[in-house]
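Researcher: Please generate the 3D structure of the following complex. Treat every line as part of one assembly.
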Amino acid sequence: MHPGSEHVCQLWLSSVTIDWGVRGNSRLHLTRRRFATQLLLLVLVVCSLSARAEESFERVNVVDPYLELRTGPGRGYPITTIAERGELVEILRRRTDWFKIRTARGQEGWVVREQMERTLTEAGVKTSFRDVLVEDYLRRKLEFGFAYGQFDFDPILTARVGYRLHENFLLELTLSQVPGDFSSTTLTYVSIMSQPYPDSDWSPYFSLGYGKFNNKPKATLVSAIETDADLANAGIGVRYYLTRQFVARLEFKQHVALINFSRSDSFSEWSLGISAFF
Amino acid sequence: MKKTLNLILLALLLGSVVTTPAPAQTPTPVIQPEVERRNIRIPKINVDDIEIGLYGGILSVQDFGANSVSQVRVAYHLTEDFFIEGTFAHSTVSDDSFRSLGIPIFTQPDTSLDYYHLSVGYNLFPGEIFFGKDWAMTSAVYLIAGAGNVKFNNENNTAFNFGIGIRVLPKDWLAIRVEMRDMLFESDVLGKNEIKHNFEMTLGLAVYF
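Model: Done. Output below.
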């Protein structure tokens, strides 16, 4: 991006803020204000990007007889030029398994990871553009995921965030929603997961959780009341390492809702999900 | 009492320091190896597999007409073929036509429709689009499908979606996307429980991070 773009961005920002602050508070201006907020967001995003464009790029030495430079990041794009052995090339960006590089002659193009793996850094060290491997994921702390399943006879959607406390233990926060025929239920959980064999591709696990249960009947039902309750669960499941930073999870959970001193309900849940670790 | 305790603690601490064995004297090597230290560091590269965008368009809600819809989407590109995408959307639905017949459906004339989805996309036809004679932009026609939740008239329902779209990249970090989708969910808002088809057409601008 052009070096002057940062100033343009600042100008934009200030003009948008003035427009935002000075106008009156009629309804028309409120919609304008909302529009201004959206615009502000967009400009912020673009500005943060242009600021990033100023940094210097990593340079590597070509070891293969040549690197093939394509017009786009995909196997089908035509090869327009090459970079020869011994040439120092700049790496501009990476998208999935493709690297955008600039040759010493200033030509740009996309190179596949397999070819980039055999390049050397300026210091003569082998580069490390390999994939994330199974052992890497035990060192990663944070995990995000989604799951879809069956909660008694209703579908359940779950979003989860996990923090790895130890190789064998994961602390997890989950939010689930059960949109049933007569009511919709929200489950919030804090749970601990134990993985006895964390480094195998198929890794079984056990989990225990405590949380809250909220059940809201549909508005079309007559004289139905909202229910809040404490919730506990025990689960068993298996994790399968897919590729890069992704893990698939299949699990079975038994939930117990403690509605009051004399009444408790139990539910069973099956779910299949995908998680990514960072 | 406290003072004596402190004294004892101090004494113990000092004792432990004194009693630690001194490290054994290492013998001086006969040959001093001259190794040049290599400067090893992990290469820093902009990995921009994440795409964040703002979208706007028209959502046609079955039985209730078409309304504007605004969305925020976050996508992660897994490979050159597949991506996963989360969508959060907001729209407002009005029951004006029912109300004019004297049968209001909602408690208020306008009700909100919010949904979130997690979808998987497949870049079916990657390619290039030529604009004029100097400008080539990478592009892709993709298929997308997923599941999520829709909150319509204060009721939550599971929703499924599928669609087709085109993505054009005028810059490596910027994408323009046009998409058509159908969102399906069960609703009993008109008394009978049935599956509703809700077509949606959106245009959006997304940046890669």
